[in-house]
What we know:
35% of the residues lie in helices and 19% in strands. It is of the alpha+beta class. The chain folds into three domains: 8-245, 2-Layer Sandwich (Heat Shock Protein 90), CATH 3.30.565.10; 269-412, 2-Layer Sandwich (Ribosomal Protein S5, domain 2), CATH 3.30.230; 426-588, no CATH class. The strands form five sheets. Strands 7-5-4-8-3-2-9-10 form an eight-stranded mixed beta sheet, with helices on both faces. It has a five-stranded mixed beta sheet with strand order 11-12-15-13-14, covered by helices on one side. A three-stranded mixed beta sheet has the order 18-20-19. The chain is globular and about 85 Å long.
Amino acid sequence: MTISTDKTExxxxxxxxxxLKAKGFDYGFAVGTAFVESMRNTHYKHTGTALDELIDNSIxxxxxxxxxxxxxxxxxxxxxxxxxxxxxxxxMPPGMLRPAAAWGGTHRHNDEVRxxxxxxxxxxxxxxxxxxxxxxxxxxVAGGNWHCVSVDLDEIAAGKHTxxxxxVHVPEEQENCEPPKWVFEHIECHMPGGKLPHGTVVIWxxxxxxxxxxxxxxxxxxxxxxxxxxxxxxxQTGIKFDGTVVEPLDPLFVTPGFRYFDEDEDRxxxxxxxxxxxxxxxxxxEKVKLTVRFALFPHRFFSKDKEKDAAxxxxxxxxxxxxxxxxxxxxxxxxxxxxxxxxxxxxxEKFRNDDRYWAxxxxxxAELDEEFTIANSKQGVVMSDRIWDLLADAxxxxxxxxxxxxxxxxxKADKTKPEDPNxxxxxxxxxKESEKFRRLRTPSxxxxxxxKAKEQFEQYVKQKAKEQKRPEELVRSEAKEEExxxxxxxxxxxxxxxxxxxxxxxGGMKVLEINTSHRFYTDVYASPxxxxxxxxxxxxxxxxxxxxxxxxxxxxxxxxxYHVEKTAWSERLEVALDVLHKFGxxxxxxxxxDEGIEIEAA
Length: 602
């Protein structure tokens, strides 16, 4: 998921600032100080949702990194008294900071093509005064000098920025004013290259409404919050809070590599996604795509001890995430907005506690804004009757009822499925035989790799012991024998939207998992033209690439490269294979000698 950040964004800001200057714009907030104070009551659920407004701006500015830094006036680092959002986007030109500090000061209002998150220019000032009595904006463009503007509600209340007519004005923009020292110290430690040649810094001082007053409280809650809200953008724009990298978190728990996906041996089940073509009211009836994802969670998915329900201290990290997302998760352009807790459908008017065992997500493009009324604070969504009808026609209502029945059945009996017998595959034998010719690389952190392999092995043992209803020690012993005899193994699983393959190390066994929901599987690997030799060759290819990924464990740069590039390869491959059908011909296909492909259960 990407936000358009072409070079014209900065030019648009320059033109907008010049236009305001030419018109003699007086930079008034509004008549009377009461307006500014009343804007403090703009509803934000908590500090994280207010900070989202600033992060949105950073992503729209083309930032590759956003850092939330904490400032302390005392020696103790337990409670911060200042906060800064730092980004390396294109920055704002002189003349743009004053309108940015005012409500409605945006160059994007009434844009014909909506490419960003914001539309009305309320986010930065509303979020800032909601959380603090003073905020400052510092910005620099490439080759330029720092400039800034500060808004202090106490000064406004004292009448310092009020003219004779009672109108409150945005303070004058200052030239050659740099952010404070503690901000530069954070930049040096956590921004790319330790410098900020261009970008923007927003600082909150006099913080009197912060949800979590301690550093620990902020870190524990905001890392998870940002991981959910920006899960689809963290490959494009990295986010750090107090120096800690924000990990993407899919509340459907079906995306490999995301936080809590492999919290334990249980896995969420991704159901077939839906894609709706909807006529936009803005673009002459042009059809745009709205996507829907579904997931079902095993009965003990949220339990630490899998023999007991998830309650009190037995609930794992997934539990709170699921509780916070009981309902229909709504995203706009991949950025999460809200969780709708009611529907117009009979007996599903309001979601209940048991609905945590499944999840559904709707993601709509900006062209459908008029169908999804979004609050100015980007936290609430009201879907039109037309959208509800389209979702029902596409099967959402039916699927929710089926998911509820499935959950009810799981509660009555925690069913397990038998494991299919494993078979030797040519690719597994080939990789094992060729191991002695492999040019070994020294892993960057062999201890980290070994620990991860042990963790994967123990999760596998617990999962199989649970499915087969056998003692863990017996399953563990058999698994150890299996990894000695078969150090390579091919498995299959269904992960819509995930890369077309992944390779993990489970103890001493390297496992290639092929994603059956990707076009690579349906159009190439399992196509009628693919014989046993071709499939074995593809498996060997993916094993070989996967081993390089495993060798990169412990080297953050290399691991990030494979994670980002594999996702990009998979997306490009999905599209290219779809287009390939336009150029392929029926006569190019040959009948396969196989009657079918035997897939081992994951």
